[in-house]
């Protein structure tokens, strides 16, 4: 297969250089409003500004890999825990929920990852020549770009398998057309990039650099890459590193803290994308006025909150959560994570927890009633009955559930767009480590990891008879 990953936005500077090569012409004048390779990379400020562009294709609020309109839905619509509502928007149905190589929205994700790779390669090739910087700082910034390149290829290979491999920047359009490389070759680059990043990234960041990747993120993704490639010995070894000092990662007591704008960059966060209510509300990806906020709540929130309500939890996901109850005397009936993941009416199921009011005045009934039309157009999950009553559940995670604003999930209420998106949490590290331990026969290590997860969820401790039972627990726990 040959794939065109030539991106006009990424190599505009390269084209500028190509045009400048015709230096004999009096028409070759420098545009004072645009930077070129010749007048960039002059100092550390330039280097820091360039690095921000490497994050952008992954972070983009609408069209990045985790973008609300493309990436997030392309990932989650294919999972077995998200039910996509087929409403009257034909564009939405075709573009986001039918996963074929022809769909434009999928192409957006593919293209954005190669934007990241191109920019990372350009960065790696220029950072060593920036004057006025120490070698240590250059290595640190190069490691940051290298991590992002590895991360982009990680996302590519787990979604598409064999893809084109570019270890250097594209300087001519024809260089973008290359055969796909084997998955083995892609994984080799990914692991090498994460290893390099691990060596030179800082363990912690100053407040003004919060959100930029750290050594912990590199180690976590290196361990995850080893799990994906079934190198479980090295996976267990790497993931164990960030479970002890000098790393201070841990589970937060309240699972909801992982989804609130008030508890960002907490001790459970290993890598998160930082958003803020800045811009003019436009959907552009990288214009200076584009919205810089987190707009995912608009797509998930129920209509009563001015959300577009595109997805619901599946019946199987709810079944996983409600199969096991908490011990008698607990302050909730179900797994504590249910109350941060879903809206539901607690009293429907004889819960000891009192019903809540959201968005200042919304009961669960009012939220549910507002979804009636959306649920009847294209079908909805057939939830199991609980305590003899019909199951009624909406997604709460990734909405602005803490807001007192009736329009708390409206895309056009920019004050509600400040929440960060958590990409990698310590909970995932524990589950990856548990899986590696199981494959390596380390039953004690896996049991300890799973008990940490279950303790936070408020569930009783268990004894697993064998490694198969342990793996089933890992699979079950990962959905939450």
Overall spatial form = globular
Question: Helix segment count?
Answer: 17
Termini separation comes to 37 Å
DSSP strand count: 9
Structural class: mainly alpha
Oligomer: single chain
| Approximate strand percentage | 5-15%
Residue-averaged pLDDT, rounded?
87
Tell me the radius of gyration: 24 Å
String of helices and strands: EHHHEHHHEEHHHEHEHHEHHEEHHH
Low-pLDDT segments, ≥5 res: 1-26
What kind of sheet is the major sheet?
A: 3 strands, antiparallel
Helical residues, percent: 40-55%
Q: Main sheet: which strands, in order across?
A: 1-4-3
Could you characterize the architecture of this molecule?
The protein has 480 residues and is mostly helical. The chain contains 17 helices and 9 strands. The strands form 4 sheets. It has a 3-stranded antiparallel β-sheet. α9 (232-241) packs antiparallel against α15. The relative contact order is 0.11.
Please provide a brief summary of the model:
Helix content is 42%, strand content 6%.
